[in-house]
Amino acid sequence: MAKILVTGGAGFLGSHLITALLKTSCFEGELRKNLITPRSAQYDLTTEKGVYALYQETYPDIIIHLAAVVGGIGANRQHPGTFYYKNLIMGALMIDYARRGGHEKFVAIGTICSYPKFAPTPFREESLWDGYPEETNAPYGIAKKGMLVQLQAYRQEFGFNGIYLLPVNLYGPGDNFNPNSSHVIPALIKKCIEARESGAASITCWGTGSATREFLYVTDAADSIVAATRLYDGVEPVNIGSGSEISIFDLVHLIAKLTGFNGDIEWDPSQPDGQPRRLLDTSRAKKEFQWEATTKLKDGLRQTIDWYEMARQTNAASN
């Protein structure tokens, strides 16, 4: 039975990935004993000491590297240096020490933010190097893309088996609803629910609403990682997405409707829209490891809103 290490296993995607791994027949049996989910307090993965200790104390066969410093547009604008350095050094050290230790396989999770700002849609993996990323999250996107370069170079020189997955924006139960670091869907859900409860006449959203985004339900993302870990050993990056696109304008109105907020929606064009469009071509994932997303956006939003409403009630009851 393979021993699997998941960095970031306590995070949003990580917690769903752990559940997906434990439910997958190919990893059943003794997996619970062989599934390693270290916490950031135990190992500082931005240091050689921390990475070396992690591998020496756990010695996994397969590494799934989810750990990252992430956030929405506001957090990326506020901490570009931190986002660049910590993500770059974590990826470089995790891959290098996995290669040195002769570990069987490395699964790196990249980001759609690595794509050029004006990449033709739908984004194809071949377009990844055709321009500079959107400025507000370029440091994060470039740092994560560094893992792809390293994995391909290590495969060429050392025969190291590393794969690279490119998920779109994720959402779902357990997401980060902190307004200082959350992404667009949890931020909008929180804003609409609080406006509904306070009786606010309106809410204000960043930008113009014209930008489009593709969103992937978190359990679909977890299933894609399990499938790729089992079935894919290729050198090329692989897009992971839902295959559908929605404007931020339409997304806000949909979330307002689902949360029961009936007030006005105003826009602040002094704030950035971010990348103009995001939509992935996911045909490679279907071809290489037979994976497709199954959760429709409206259904996923309902489940996310229900989870958040319940979590708020639970927190209020315990305080």
Taking the sheet with the most strands, its summary is:
6 strands, parallel
CATH superfamily: NAD(P)-binding Rossmann-like Domain
What level of helicity do the residues show? 40-55%
The multimeric state of the shown protein is single chain
Instruction: Report the uncertain regions.
Output: none
CATH fold-level label = Rossmann fold
Task: Characterize the structure shown.
The chain has one domain: 3-Layer(aba) Sandwich (Rossmann fold), CATH 3.40.50. The mean pLDDT is 93. It has 319 residues and is an alpha/beta fold. 45% of the residues are buried. The protein is globular. The protein has eleven helices and twelve strands.
Search tags:
319 residues; alpha/beta; Rossmann fold; 11 helices
Q: Could you give the topology of this structure?
A:
Elements: E1 4-7, H1 12-23, H2 31-34, E2 35-36, H3 48-58, E3 62-65, H4 73-78, H5 80-100, E4 105-109, H6 138-158, E5 162-167, E6 169-171, H7 184-198, E7 202-206, E8 212-213, E9 215-217, H8 218-231, E10 238-240, E11 246-247, H9 248-259, E12 264-268, H10 283-289, H11 297-318
Parallel strand pairs: 1-2, 1-3, 3-4, 4-5, 5-10, 6-9, 7-12
Antiparallel strand pairs: 8-11
Helix pairs in contact: 1-8, 3-5, 5-6, 7-9, 7-11, 9-11
